Each structure stands twice: as structure tokens, then as C-alpha cells.
């Protein structure tokens, strides 16, 4: 009799799976570099992040677009500290230098608003439809997860 697979504690995030899969490939390095944009505000704080944004990363040098000359001068003095904080949040030494460039920093991307929970109740027909579509799934845990996703989708549409 085949052994059951161990139960997952939680579903793995796609980002984690991609990072693991591409770990030793060039694309894996690009994924690591992309995290710089995710940790930027946490690393420099809201005040600096409102006036300076990362624009590019190449060979260890992070290009940052800064709104005006006084802020460029201030950030020049803070380069080492900023680099250390970014690398600390990344967990490795990716950034070795900052190149500051004058320009208007683009606004940070708007965060999507969290979806409202339970917009409406499922009708008995919809519940039956979900049951029929998931009946062929032999793993009860997977069947329950997919049923939940389908139900959520129907509630919100």
C-alpha cells in the first residue's frame, strides 16, 4: 500500500516556489534583485521613500531617482547606512553601491484594497455545482481547498 504524503502545514506561496525552483539559475538572481523594490520603503523609511525610488539594479549598483538636489545630498551621506539596511532586509549582500540620479520619482504602485469577505451566500444550486465538479478529486484536503476557492469565486462574482 502506498504511503500517504505528509500533510502540508500551509500552502506554499508561488514566490517561494519560484525562488526555490530558479535558485541556481540566472532568473533566480533576478528574483532576488526584484526583492529590493519590495524592501525599499521598509529599509529607508516613509520620508525618504516619498522622495526617492529605486529605478534599476545592475552589477551590485542600485540606481535611485531622487526628487531634488537637497535630498540627493542628504542621501549621499546616508549611502552606507541605506545599503546596509537593504542588504539586511534581503538577508544577503546584493547591493554594493547606490547611484543617485535627479528626477521625479514615480509614485509607489497602489496596493489593491483587500477583498470584502462573503459578498453573498451561495445558492443550493451553486453548492451542488461545486460538489459535482470536485467529486472526482480523491484527496479530501485538496477537494476542500478547491471547493472553498470555487465558493469564494462565486460569492464575489
Structure report:
With 157 residues, the protein is α+β, with helices and mostly antiparallel strands. It has two domains: 14-102, GMP Synthetase, Chain A, domain 3; 124-156. It is 51% helix and 12% strand. Strands 1-2-3 form a three-stranded mixed sheet. The radius of gyration is 23 Å and the shape is elongated.
Mean pLDDT: 83
The CATH class of the largest domain is identified as: Alpha Beta
CATH architecture label of the largest domain: 2-Layer Sandwich
Superfamily (CATH H level) name of the largest domain: DnaA, N-terminal domain
List unreliable stretches of 5+ residues: none
Whole-number tally of structural domains: 2
Describe this protein with a few key phrases.
3-stranded mixed beta sheet, elongated, single chain, 3 strands, alpha+beta, 157 residues, GMP Synthetase, Chain A, domain 3
Quick recap:
This protein is α+β, with helices and mostly antiparallel strands and 157 residues long.
Layout of helices and strands:
Elements: H1 14-21, H2 26-44, H3 46-49, E1 52-58, E2 61-66, H4 69-77, H5 79-90, E3 97-102, H6 124-134, H7 140-156
Parallel strand pairs: 2-3
Antiparallel strand pairs: 1-2
Helix pairs in contact: 2-5, 6-7
